[in-house]
Amino acid sequence: xxxxxxxxxxxxxxxxxxxxxxxxxxxxxxxxxxxxxxxxxxxxxxxxxxxxxxxxxxxxxxxxxxxxxxxxxxxxxxxxxxxxxxxxxxxxxxxxxxxxxxxxxxxxxxxxxxxxxxxxxxxxxxxxxxxxxxxxxxxxxxxxxxxxxxxxxxxxxxxxxxxxxxxxxxxxxxx
Amino acid sequence: xxxxxxxxxxxxxxxxxxxxxxxxxxxxxxxxxxxxxxxxxxxxxxxxxxxxxxxxxxxxxxxxxxxxxxxxxxxxxxxxxxxxxxxxxxxxxxxxxxxxxxxxxxxxxxxxxxxxxxxxxxxxxxxxxxxxxxxxxxxxxxxxxxxxxxxxxxxxxxxxxxxxxxxxxxxxxxx
DNA sequence: CTTGACTCTGTATTCGACTACAGGGTTTAT
DNA sequence: ATAAACCCTGTAGTCGAATACAGAGTCAAG
Lengths: 175, 175
What we know:
With about 180 residues, chain A is mainly alpha-helical. The first copy, chain A, has five helices and three strands, in the order E-H-H-E-E-H-H-H.
C-alpha cells in the first residue's frame, strides 16, 4: 500500500477517507481498545480490512462516534445506542421504535433533572444554613442528620458521573 | 417522628430503639446484604451486638441511611459519603473539608445539569424535526448522523441511572 | 423437637463500560 | 537490518455498588 492515499479521487459522494484505527482514535478521542470493544459489542460495524488485516475505517465512522458520545451524555446505554444504530442500519424505516426509546428517555431525563434540582436545592440550603451557624457539634453540619430535608427519596439510583480521572494512555484530542 | 417515645426516661436524648438488621432493611428499603456491605466499607459504623451476635441497630441509623440515599442521588459516591460521615464522627469541627466537597459537588452538579439541558434540547429538537419529516432513509432520523447537532462534547461521561430492573429479593418499602 | 424465619461470616458473582496485557505480525525510519 | 511504532487477537482485570450464595448458629411456635 502506498501512503499518499489522497491523490485518488473516488468521483463519488464524499471524501471517503480510509483511516487506520489509531487515526480514528486520535480524531475521535476514543481510544483504540475502546473502538475494538465497540466493534465487538456490535455498536460499530466491522470496518473493511486491508491486506495485512488492519481495520480501515471509512471516515464517516467519526460521525457515528460523535453520536455515540452525545447519546451517552444523555444517558443512553451502549445497548440502547446499539439498538438505535441497528435499527438504522436495517435500512427501511429506522425510526418507529427508536423514536419511542428516545421519547421515553426524554421523559426520564426530565424527571431525573427535576429530582436533581430538588435535591440540589435542599443541599445548597443545608450548606448555607450550615455556613451561617458554624460547626455546631452534634448537629453534624445540618444535613447529615437529615434535619432540613423532608422527603426520603424514590428508588432512583446512582446518577454519578464517573468522569475520567483515570490514567488514559492515549488521549488524542484535536478538533 | 414521635410515637411513644417520651415515656421512657433515658434521661438522655432520644428513643434509642434497637432494631435488628431485617427491621432496618424493611424500614429503610435498603436490603440486608447492602447494610452489611455498607458496614464493611466503613460507611456505617459497626452497630452493637446482642449476646447471640446479632447486630442491634440504634434507630438513628435510619437517618444515616436516608442521608446516604439522598447524597447518592446527588451524585456523591459512597467514598465521598464515607468521608463526610467520618469527618462528622471524628467529633470536633466536622465541616471544614466537607463543605468544600459539597460546594465542589454543587458546582459540578450545576454544570452537569446545564449540559444535560443542552443535549436534551438538541435531542428533542431532533426528535421533533424527525417526527415532522417522516423517515427519510439515508437521513437516519436526523440526529444519528449528527446533522443537527453542533458541538462535539466534552469528556463528560455516562450519566446513566442504572435503575434497578434487578431481581431484588427484599423490597421493603413502606413509609 | 423439629420447622421455618432470621441471623451470622466469608467469599464470589454481577453489571456496564472500559482498560490492560500477553504474544505476535507489519511498516517505517534510521 | 534493526528498532520504534503501529496493528492484530484474545483473554483478563478494574471500578463502583451492590447481590448472591454456602454453610452455620439462633429463636419462637406448633
